[in-house]
Amino acid sequence: MPTMNMLQAINNALDIAMAEDEKVVCFGEDVGIFGGVFRATSHLQEKYGKARCFNTPLVEQGIIGFANGLAAQGGVPVAEIQFADYIFPAFDQIVNETAKFRYRSGDLFNVGGLTIRTPYGGGINGGLYHSQSPEAYFVHTPGLKVVVPRNPYQAKGLLLAAIRDPDPVIFFEPKRLYRASTGEVPEEDYQLPIGEAEITKEGTDVTLVGWGAQMEVIDKAVALAEEAGIACEVIDLRSLLPWDADTVAESVLKTGRLVITHEAPLTGGFAGEIATTIQERCFLYLESPIARVTGLDTPFPLTLEKEYFPDHLKIFEAIQHSVNF
Amino acid sequence: MTQTIYAPDFMTGDEFSIPTFRVLNPEGELHDEAQAPELTRDHARRIYHAMLSTRIMDERMMAAQRQGRLSFYMQCTGEEASVVGATAALDDADMIMAQYREQGALMYRGFSFDEFMNQLFGNELDYGKGRQMPVHYGSRKLHYMTISSPLATQIPQATGYAYGQKLAKEGHCTLTFFGEGAASEGDFHAALNMASVHQVPVIFFCRNNGYAISTPANEQFAADGIAPRAFGYRMHVIRVDGNDVLAVYEATHQARKIAVEKNQPVLIEAMTYRLAAHSSSDDPSGYRAKSEEETWRLKDPILRMQKWLNHKEWWSDDEETETQERLRREVLETMKRAEKRPSPALDTLISDVYADVTPALQHQFDALKQHIRRYPEAYPRGAKSLDLDVRDVANHAGGE
């Protein structure tokens, strides 16, 4: 089985999708001959032609407006927003149009073919505008699906599932892991389920929940915890909308403790939603308060990124606190 | 070709003047140098019938709104020639992505009064399942995209839709309607630029009707209307008298050729006037003079076409009277039918959010149904669509 980094896995997924279905069209800023600023769309224009893989003008609201129209026509657009920090000009098209297309027309029309790929997250010295994790804004919007992969294998399988899913999907790619994360990825076509979490490690003392790049950070924290004799159960949510509350609840019924972590700021972050749902479902089984390890309620900093970041030590501390409560 | 100058010389665009294309004068006669488009008698009558039907439905439904039978309404009044004339120049299978005031387009394509009324009353037969406010029509079979309230969002979507038509190579195009106010939105600029860069068969049809709710056009933009913007995108553009149905038809007919044969976008600016209020919630007396409205009433597009048809002996006063009476009767009958029909079933609350209902949403819905069972009299529409015994509901309500 070949080894790929996350970009190669994403590129490979796009290649498979475009080869299989001529309705699949990839576009965005610098996506054409250059292959995107991160090279996720490398060689696709050469292989499938300019009509199916192309640069757009620098206008995010136009990219998603165009993508909505193409999807409504029956196309399968894979639109790239160069950084998740720049998705906001397209917010109206995504929240008011993409998400409501099927509902408002009574299913006469839909944009289910649409996938929006966008790199998110910090750890690359990107400061305010190349580091944000805006998933919570979109998770608050019925009609969208929101997916975040943690490694190359997940990225390929989830992206292929997203492209073929009958509903529009925002696919947040952890850009810090684009080249840093490598692993074995099958060359053939495969899909991973949207809406199902994965237990990546079993344990009995405390449940840890995260997604995307934060899973690597959780693993480091768990290594410290295990040294301290704490058995951790680790869950990668993979899909935030819809999200797999059953798997998390089942785990917390067993461990009685839950630590949730994300890079985005605390207030209004998705950890709040998870915490509420789990306390509803596991109230009498909880041994300690549900903990959230997140970014601060500030814009994403630059020189103080390390201090801001919900790193493995902060998570480890939260695990200890939860276990010793 | 780039020309070099050696002293600063600023330009404003006033160097260009964009003419207005006209065919009919207000008396319904051809201007001296103008030619009538090639329209058969049947086609001309189909156009006129759609314009007249739109006017009569609008009058009746606005009255129904005033009677409290309808929550909201928007009239196409004064703009029927722009909307129907443009639609008539398309192939019936071309996509139309409208703003909200273009019911004339659907009328032309054969949307029935029943279909209009079902949407307006949001009953169980509404294609949109009672989810949107009145006038948010849509029809897949008539290639008319369901209306969305946010302004201008349909414009870049039209570019994308037309791009798909270009890839499909079936010889179809998309026409998108919008007002001169909506053209201030960023989506307008995004759409025109992308259409021009990607050479897309789309027609951008601006109904410049003078007002965005209360804001007059001269507070909307400083330039000579919307048309000059096409220069910035190197796009074909034409300005047309929007109350002259023959001019609108011919301009759109030629625009469609450019779109479909050359895969190039076209901007049409139709100069017209919103004779009615913005909506049933608006009162124009607060921001414009009656005399201004009267001036435009003299340029009524329907009267102008009627006169032309009469000159051609394709229409008669008797036919006019009979048709108006018949249309009024049909609108009234279908309205009575539609308002009696029940609301959509309760489960349409959660269907179509996704292709399939998610387990989490189903869970929320089950909780809602249990709540309604406990308080059935508080949710009459919901209770009716539950499997409740009607006598139980009556007893429960009577006991309080």
The shape of chain B, in one word, is globular
Average residue pLDDT of chain A = 98
CATH architecture of the largest domain in chain B: 3-Layer(aba) Sandwich
DSSP helical segment count of chain B = 14
Q: Roughly what is the average pLDDT of chain B, rounded to an integer?
A: 94
CATH fold title of the largest domain in chain A: Rossmann fold
CATH topology of the largest domain in chain B: Rossmann fold
Name some characteristics of this structure.
heterodimer, A: 325 residues, alpha/beta, Rossmann fold, 2 domains, 7-stranded mixed β-sheet, 5-stranded mixed β-sheet, 12 helices, globular, B: 400 residues, 6-stranded parallel β-sheet, two-stranded antiparallel ribbon, 44% helix, disordered C terminus, EC 1.2.4.4 (chain A)
Describe the 3D structure:
The complex is a heterodimer of chains A (325) and B (400). Chain A is built from twelve helices and 14 strands. Chain A has helices at 6-20, 44-48, 60-73, 91-97, 101-104, 135-139, 152-164, 214-227, 245-255, 270-282, 305-308, 312-323; strands at residues 3-5, 24-28, 53-55, 76-80, 115-120, 145-147, 169-174, 182-184, 198-201, 206-210, 232-236, 239-241, 258-265, 291-295. Helix content of chain A is 36%, strand content 20%. The model of chain A has no long low-confidence stretch (mean pLDDT 98). Chain A folds into two domains: 3-184, 3-Layer(aba) Sandwich (Rossmann fold), CATH 3.40.50.970; 198-323, Rossmann fold (3-Layer(aba) Sandwich). In chain A, helix 7 (152-164) links the parallel strand 6 (145-147) and strand 7. In chain A, strands 3-2-4-5-7-6-12 form a seven-stranded mixed beta sheet, sandwiched between helices. In chain A, strands 9-11-10-13-14 form a five-stranded mixed beta sheet, with helices on both faces. The termini of chain A are far apart. In chain A, helix 3 runs parallel beside helix 4 (91-97) and helix 9 crosses helix 10 (270-282). Chain B has two domains: 20-340, Thiamin diphosphate (ThDP)-binding fold, Pyr/PP domains (Rossmann fold), CATH 3.40.50; 346-398, no CATH class. Helix content of chain B is 44%, strand content 8%. Chain B is built from 14 helices and eight strands. Chain B has helices spanning 41-66, 80-88, 103-109, 113-120, 154-168, 186-198, 229-233, 245-262, 290-297, 301-312, 317-340, 359-374, 380-385, 390-398, and strands spanning 20-21, 95-97, 174-179, 202-208, 211-212, 215-216, 236-241, 266-271. In chain B, helix 1 (41-66) packs across helix 2 (80-88), helix 1 packs antiparallel against helix 10 (301-312) and helix 5 packs parallel to helix 6 (186-198). Chain B is globular and about 80 Å long. At the A-B interface, helix 3, helix 4 and helix 5 of A face helix 5, helix 6 and helix 12 of B.
